[in-house]
Amino acid sequence: MQNRIILSSILMLGFTILLNGQISKKKNILLICVDDLRPELGSFGASYIKSPNIDKLVNEGRAFQNHYVNAPSCGPSRYTLLTGIYGPPKNDALFLRSKKIKKEPNVMHPSMPEWFRQNGYTTVSVGKVSHHPGGRGGKDWNDNNVIEMPNAWDKHIMPVTEWQHPRGTMHGLANGEIRIKAGDMDVFQTVEGPDTIYPDGHITNEAIKQLESLTSNNEKPFFLAVGIIKPHLPFGAPKKYFNLYADVKLPDISSQEKPKGISTWHESGEFMKYNRWGKNPNEDKEFAIEVRKHYAACVSYADAQVGRILSKLKETGADKNTIIVLWGDHGWNLGEHAIWGKHNLFEEGLHSPLIISYPGIKNKGKSNFGIVETVDVFPTLCDLTTIETPSFVKGKSLKPQLKKYNKKGHIAVSYNTKANTIRTGKYRLIAHKNRNFELYNHYKDPYEINNLAKTQPKTVMKLKKILDNRL
C-alpha cells in the first residue's frame, strides 16, 4: 500500500513538472510563406479553387480578408515581413540591408527571426523565405559568404536536388529543367509524376524533416519558416493538380481593360518574356483561361504542401503549442487592368492572404475584414509569444483582431519604385513621384476604374498627408 502511495506521488510530481514545463514554454512559430499567392483560395471567396488544406487552417484560425502587402514584389515585401519596417522598393532590399550590417554591424535593427533568436528561439528557414531560396547570394545563390539575412537563422536550407543550385530551383520546371533564357522556357507546364517532380515537393520534405528534429528537442521553442515557391512563374505543377480544373468554368475577369491616363499599369514583362507560343492572354480569351487554370493548379499544388507540413506538425503533437502564420508575399493580376503579373499598385497587386491560427483562439473560423498590412506580423508574433515588442517596428499587433474577430483594422501603405499608395476602408490613393494622383472609392468602385483625383482634391491631400507621415 505504501509503495503504491509513493509511486502515485512520484507520477503526480512528474506530471506536474511536465505540465508546468508545457505551460511555461514559449509558443513555437510556424511561418509559411507562399510566393505570388493572391487570395485565390476557397476560403477567400474563390469558390472554384481547390485549396482544402489552407481552407481548413482558416476554419481553425483567423483569416484576414483585407490584408495588404507593403510592396508588390518578392524582395521588398519579404523585407517588410522579416524586419517589421518599410524598406527599399527593389528585390535586393534585404541584400542592401546585409551590406549595411557588414559595414556598420551595430546600426541596423535586428530582423524578426534574429529578434526571436535573441529571445531563446531556435530559428530555421527552409525554401524561399527571404528573396533568394536558401538566403544566399552569388551567381547561383549558394555563396556562403553572401548571406541575405545575417544573424537571423541557426540554419537556412534550400534543397536543390536535380535543379543543381537555388537559382535553378527558383524558376525550375519538371525533372530539373532550369531557366537559362526565359524565352526558351514555357510559361506554364504540367507533367505526370509525384510532388517531387517540382522543387516544392523537396522543400516540403525538408520542412518535415526539420519539424521532426525541432519537435524531438523540447529544450527551446522553435521559429520555423518555410517558403513555397509556386505559384510563382513559370507555372508548373504535377498533372493531378491541373486535372482538378479540367471541367471547371472560371469566373469572368473583372476590369480587363488597360487603364486610361496615369496608372501603375505595365506591360507584364515578367510574364511575357517566357515562351507563350506567340499568344497574348489580353488578346486570346482561350489562352487567358489556360493561363488561369495553370495558376490554379499551382495554388492547389502549394496547398497540398501546406497540408503535408501541417499534418506533420499535428503528428508530432507540437500543434498544441504552435502559432501558425500563412502569408502570401503579394497579389498577382490575372488579367485585371490588362496586367498578367505583380509589380503594380492596384488592388490585385497588393491584396494577399494572411491567416493566423493558434490553440485556444476564440471564434475560430471567423474572418476579420479590417484593413491590415504585412508589417503587422512581427509585433503580432511578439504579442502572442509574450516577447517584448521592439520599439522600431512600424506595424500594429493584430492580437485585438485575433481576440475579437470583428475588431476594426487600420490603414495599409505600399510602394514601388514609381509611386506610393495608401488603402483605407473607403479609398485607395496612389501618389506618383511625378506628382500625379489616382483616387478610387472602393465603396462604389471596387475594381479601381474611375480615378477621382481631379474631382476630390481635398480627399487627395488628406490621404497624401497620412501617407507621407507613414513613409
UniProtKB/TrEMBL annotation:
Record domain Sulfatase N-terminal: where: 27-386
Family annotation (SUPFAM superfamilies): Alkaline phosphatase-like
Pfam families attached to this UniProt entry: Sulfatase
Source species, domain of life: Bacteria
Sorted UniProt keywords: Calcium, Hydrolase, Metal-binding, Signal
GO cellular component terms, A-Z: cytoplasm
Name the record gives this protein: Iduronate 2-sulfatase
Taxonomic lineage from the root: Bacteria, Pseudomonadati, Bacteroidota, Flavobacteriia, Flavobacteriales
